[in-house]
Amino acid sequence: MRCSGAVFDMDGTILDSMGFWSDAGANFLKIRGIIPPSDLLEVLTPLSLAQTVVYLKKQFHLPESEEAIADEFNQMVEHRYLNEFPAKRDVLPFLEKLRSLGIPMCVATATDRYLAEAALKRLDMFQYFRFILTCTEVGHNKNEPVIFEKACSGLQVPKERVIIFEDSLHAIQTAKNAGFYTVAIQEDSVSADEPKIKQLADQFVHNFAEVIL
Predict the structure, then answer these.
(1) pLDDT in tens, the chain (213 residues)
(2) Residues with Cβ within 8 Å of residue 87, at least 6 apart in sequence
(3) How is the beta sheet containing 162-166 ordered, strand by strand?
(4) What is the second-level CATH architecture of the domain 5-17+86-210?
(5) Domain assignments of the chain as residue spans, ordered by start
(6) For the whole model, what pTM was predicted?
């Protein structure tokens, strides 16, 4: 395809942070003496933070307010976004390549804006993106194509010429069903889904140096 716009997921795609998120929900429950169900990660993966908070409070009858739960999650991850999570392999050279080709880029993430901006600025990636969209602000998670459609509109590029870069099966399924070209980035935390991801995505790569434009 001829690429005229690029939409990047953040966690697990351009930021090496999914190892933490894979255990975050379970750890949150364990602190409260609650045994996490075996399907917790599968349930939480497509949700935004706001949706995760609503689910946990309702499903496990937590006494805290939704705001207090969200604040606790943010405290758990804030230090890591501000100081620790590294970029995925070959991300910066790839972003520079797209910029040199005049291809507009944005981020579409389930992470709260202030954490996303902090991490991207620390890693010198923020400068490459025209804007950031978050699932919480858009009001839809990536089981629906709304955030991808809004990204496409914001980039002012026809969807037929937009590439969606993702690491998770549910997001790739959503993007493909909505008619987008998808590039799947290998991510250890979703290795169980890798066979399905390889079948579904237009490209499957281990790092950004392997992407074919």
Answers:
(1) 679 999 999 999 999 998 887 788 898 999 999 999 989 988 888 787 788 999 999 999 999 999 999 888 888 888 899 999 999 999 999 999 999 999 999 999 999 899 999 999 999 999 999 999 999 899 999 999 999 999 999 999 999 999 999 999 999 999 999 999 999 999 998 888 999 999 999 999 999 999 998
(2) 14, 15, 16, 123, 125
(3) 131-134, 105-109, 5-8, 162-166, 181-185, 203-205
(4) 3-Layer(aba) Sandwich (3.40)
(5) 5-17+86-210, 18-83
(6) 0.88
